[in-house]
Design goal:
The chain is 31% helix and 29% strand. It is of the alpha+beta class. A hairpin with a 6-residue loop joins strand 2 (33-39) and strand 3 (46-49). The protein has helices at residues 2-16, 50-61, 76-87, 101-107, 160-176, and strands spanning 21-27, 33-39, 46-49, 68-73, 90-91, 118-122, 130-135, 148-150, 180-187, 190-196, 202-205. It has three domains: 2-61, no CATH class; 65-139, Signal recognition particle alu RNA binding heterodimer, srp9/1 (2-Layer Sandwich); 142-206, 2,3-Dihydroxybiphenyl 1,2-Dioxygenase, domain 1 (Roll).
Length: 206
Amino acid sequence: MDWLRRSLIAVSLVAHATEPTNGDVDLDANRSVHGRVVTHDAGVVAQLPLSVFTQRQRRIEFMSIPIQVTFDAADPAALAEFWAVALGYEVQPPPAGFSTWDEFADANNIPPENRNDLSAVVDPDSSGPRLLFQRVPEGKTAKNRMHLDVNAGGGHGVDFADRVTAVTQHVDMLLDHGARKVEVFDRRGEFWIVMQDPEGNEFCVQ
């Protein structure tokens, strides 16, 4: 019944598109929507194709959805500290009314052995995704099927030599925080370094 749902949406959009309007909407035997809308905005009479309104609805229906990236970890707090440095993020502060996470844990009767079950880092500008680290009993056993690319070089708008310098400097900083360098690539104007975080998760700095 998706055709009927789309038809009802179209009729609704015709009804609410502009004030005042008049128009007509028909369904043919192939379940397609046909019609026109006559609007009198600012004293101008215009006939608008119904596709204008169905496209508007399509944009409404397919808005982007925020994501969170979740890592399994042996030590969530330590791994969160590393990724805060790697991304220029910050460890997520405790909820309002609490000065520390331990204070929050005390208020919610969370035992000491469970206080490092979770940790998270967030973008201080609120534009990047939240990274969550959850403690699991098993260690990492295989190569990741997905990895993060840390865009420290500034992108293609930056001179290649300057990108290489920025990437190398960022890698050196991450090495000081427990990362490991795996391999360096310099191919066709692209430069990136494959690394592992302190728990062995692969990522690239580019």
